[in-house]
Amino acid sequence: MAPAPTTPDPSADAAASGTHPRPHDGAVAPAGAAPRSIVVVGGVAGGMSAAARARRLDEHARIVVLEQGEYVSFANCGLPYHLSGEIEQREALLLHTPESLARTLRLDVRTRHRVTAIDRVRREVSVVGPEGPYRLGYDALLLAPGAEPVVPPIDGLDHPAVHSLRTVPDLDALQAAVGELLRNRPDGSEAPRAVVVGAGFIGLEAVEALVTRGLHVDLVELADHVLPPLDPELAPLLAEELAAHGVGLHTGVSATAVTGAPHGPVTVTLSDGTVLPAHLVVVNVGVRPASGLAAAAGLELGARGAIRVDADQRTSDPHIWAVGDAVEVRQAVTGALGTVPLAGPANRQGRRAADSMCGHRTTPQQPVLGTAIVRVFGLTAAVTGASQAALRSAGITHEVVHIHPSHHAGYFPGAEQIHLVASFAPDGRLLGAQAVGRAGVDKRIDVLATALRAGMTADDLAELELAYAPPYGSAKDPVNMLGFVAQNVLDGTMPQWQAGELDDVRAHALVLDVRSPEEYAAGHLEGALLVPHTELRDRIAEIRAAAAGRPVAVHCASGVRSYLATRILRGEGIDARNLSGGWLTLTALRPDAVAQPVTV
Question: Which residues of 79-92 are buried (b: 16+ CB within 10 A; e: fewer)?
């Protein structure tokens, strides 16, 4: 059979669309019956995954993909890396074209075709294409409209200097603007300046790309730290990395206005009165589900406007499915309902929806973990499961564990420190994990995401058998170490205190610093008693007297020496607790508490 044309006669489509018998829901048309008609609204991850899977399951189905943009299948996660020049060829981002999809999968892909309405009674969609409006019938309809950018209340967002970075046309416009700035830069002049509004995943990737291209960048974020999904004790690591690459960081403030002549430099005014000069502005402050079409059709939506679907991606209409950034999902740990605009879940949802539409065995949608990762120059940050803030908001009791191990054997050259945070339920179940480091972060977060999906506990993490050779890991992998530490915390072997409890601890306990005198001199807590851990056993009486019946809050640099000290003190009948994550975590979260260095 010849490939279906990519721009068929709309009137023919409309005429044919309601005349053939429709097979029962979820069943492939029997031999001799009219082919099943599947219409997919929206391409990219979810829509194209569904269309491709449907073709593999039903060779005779009539599958039409309607994409309102010019590009139906592109790697939107790769856009910042082409902007930076790391992905050299723009064409590498264009995964498929209507022509290639017609050749390989016999899909009828129509770009620049916008669906304006759904007639659920007639089972038709109204479409506006380059040749005018028409109607198209369906047996099964898949909605993959994606998300639309949140438009912040900033005056001047229509200025030509303002850009976003979500689509290929966005990339082309931003690439052209950057190229023009660099070409027209006089020799010896200052670097062109950019302001990026929004320090989420895309914002951070845009910052890195623009700095790599030679621009000076200021980053503006309304939250009190960059990458808001990250726990606050890890975010300062990213802030330091950004500052090391010359990025001006402005947190806890918003952009209020972009002003300037239509062609030329602009100024970005912040809510605290700061004025930032810029040649271009990139705004990416988040997205919301593009569910307007579904809402107009009367499909059920969630409280936050996302399309509500069942475990097989079916909407409240038995003939309509939905996938991707526009659908409501349940968070695996907290049970909260919302959206997760990530490519991985969208691809899996597309496959699942196609299985359901074609009567194939499905793998029902599982609650999502929200596993995500981002590179910030030399650092990698990754998250999975519920953050501490999400757990507190949901009222879920948990213990938080911080460790700072090397990504492989410390004696092997090149060992890099990983900063790992994990939360555990009282019964030991892993609830969430986050990591920042220069190497090995992706490996650990993937293991922990798998552990979360499997419902593993601290005991399970401690017993995982992970690959070990000095260039790759340690005999006690960081994941095992999380399990060991959590075991000690949960069974009472190592009672702990958190950096966020510092003020209360200083008011009611003796703070005991068991680092070396040199470490103490470089920075310490005012009023802390210094007793190096190697001297601890000989100075128990001194510590007991200083405590005067109060608990003893112990800390070292990372939590290891203070764990040993805590066990010694508790063996002597002293109520001692260990600081989770040690001085590294404390100073990240509470830099204001550090006393001035002293001379010893």
Answer: bbbbbbeebeeeee
